[in-house]
Design a protein that fits this description.
The chain is α/β, with parallel strands linked by helices. The chain has a domain of 239 residues: Spore Coat Polysaccharide Biosynthesis Protein SpsA, Chain A, CATH 3.90.550. The chain is built from 16 helices and eight strands. An eight-stranded mixed sheet has the order 3-2-1-4-7-6-8-5, with helices on both faces.
């Protein structure tokens, strides 16, 4: 039975509202106990940040996943010629593998590859030039005089593109065999106002250590499901630079990639502000090398969080405009609040509960979120497994990574996120 997107949104909001009413009722004794130690306002500030707001988000996602039956876009008989943009900075180790994975794509159209070496201090430009001499492909290596940031490198490459369909790929990203075809098909066959489509990015080096094992589940479960639900309500919030397709004219109308830390999210929000739709291709897979040390992970998530703040700064108008995906815009507004409460209240409260049997902060209500989290992960697992199977992929066994992802991932991510928010607030130095 066909259900309109608007009705799916209403049903998901209704379900999350019911959860909020129940959670509020159950949280009353907890809030009253906290009020004896702090003021009632501070007590509810803690309760809302630890249980109510995260619970609303999780209950909404559960309902939306149940209603999520995505349209299947058949590959058009004729797909457009495309220009691929790769901005590379010190990528001599990976860029050749990325180019090889592009060249073996059986894309039914001409593929122009533009590699912009953004003032690398290694041999990135030489590696690309030598690869060009070995293959019969349309590859254009460009070199900038000095490192000027990813946004400027992409805009420089954009001026050298020949076609109206642009695909961005990170220089350390490997494409699945039909990644280009499936990604561009979603752009071409999607609704008329579709300006960009985000692909599905997965962890390539997930077996390296526990940090990468946890990120495998983040990309597979967390990031993928959020994009899935956002696209269900016609507004994916990030067409990530690692693998996305764009309408060239729409990008130019929005001023290109802005010179910000989060150039991809700021551009995406700019496209939405102009009324464009941003899609998501759940069957267009690429595999990227995720950070394999906590230091690199911290810097990456700091950039992502700072990029979110930049998006709000440049496109605050989206907060007040009612759209199908407005719930996610508002949810993003709460991220700094949730991360702050988690880092400075939940973590100390958890330590107090474990070592000192003090349960005023971390108690029954926070434990009640675990069933919601498990239910979300169970639904996501089976939906993702179906997509993987249809595309000849399988889910690797990674129980240790999943356990740590479920129980401890937020603990290592929250400090980076909070630092990212503060970096933008205090106008700290920006870097790629």
């Amino acid at each position: 039975m066909y259900i309109k997107v608007k009705n799916k949104l209403e049903a998901s909001l209704f379900f999350s509202a019911l959860w909020l009413v129940l959670a509020f009722y159950l949280a009353l004794p907890w809030a009253n106990d906290l009020s004896n130690m702090v003021t009632p306002a501070v007590a509810w500030f803690i309760v809302a940040g630890l249980a109510l707001v995260p619970g609303v988000a999780m209950s909404f996602i559960i309902a939306a996943l149940i209603f999520d039956h995505r349209p299947e876009y058949n590959v058009p008989v004729i797909l457009p010629d495309i220009s691929i943009l790769i901005a590379a900075y010190n990528e001599e180790e990976y860029v050749e593998q990325t180019l090889e994975s592009i060249c073996v794509q059986n894309y039914p159209g001409h593929v122009e590859i533009i590699v912009v070496d953004d003032g690398s201090e290694d041999n990135t430009y030489r590696v690309v030039s030598e690869f060009l001499a070995k293959v019969d492909n349309d590859i254009k290596p460009l070199q900038m005089e000095k490192n000027s940031g990813k946004a400027n490198a992409l805009n420089f490459g954009l001026e050298h593109t020949s076609y109206e369909t642009i695909v961005t790929i990170d220089a350390d990203t490997l494409l699945h065999n039909k990644a280009l075809e499936n990604l561009v098909s979603n752009l071409v066959a999607g609704p008329e106002n579709t300006a960009a489509v985000a692909g599905t990015v997965l962890a390539h080096n997930s077996r390296k250590n526990l940090i990468t094992r946890m990120q495998e589940w983040d990309y597979f479960h967390g990031i993928a499901v959020i994009k899935r639900i956002q696209s269900l309500f016609q507004g994916t919030l990030v067409a990530q630079g690692a693998f996305s397709a764009y309408n060239k004219q729409a990008v130019k109308d929005s001023g290109g990639w802005p010179d910000t830390v989060g150039e991809d999210i700021v551009l995406t929000w700019g496209l939405q502000e102009k009324g464009y739709r941003i899609g998501y291709a759940e069957n267009a897979f690429v595999f990227t090398n995720v950070p394999d040390t906590y230091g690199n992970f911290f810097r990456q998530r700091k950039r992502w969080s700072r990029g979110l703040m930049e998006a709000f700064k440049h496109h605050s108008k989206l907060i007040s405009e009612i759209r199908l995906n407005t719930f996610f815009i508002w949810l993003n507004v709460t991220f700094p609040y949730i991360d702050f409460v988690y880092l400075f209240v939940f973590i100390p409260g958890l330590i107090a509960a474990i070592f000192f049997q003090f349960y005023a902060v971390v108690g029954l209500m926070t434990v009640l979120l675990l069933p919601l989290a498990l239910l979300i992960n169970w639904i996501i697992y089976f939906k993702q497994r179906k997509i993987f199977k249809e595309n000849g992929l399988h889910i690797r066994h990674n129980i240790a990574g999943f356990t740590l992802y479920l129980l401890g991932y937020q603990a290592i991510m929250a400090p980076a996120c909070v630092f990212g928010y503060l970096s933008e607030f205090f106008h700290m130095r920006k870097s790629w």
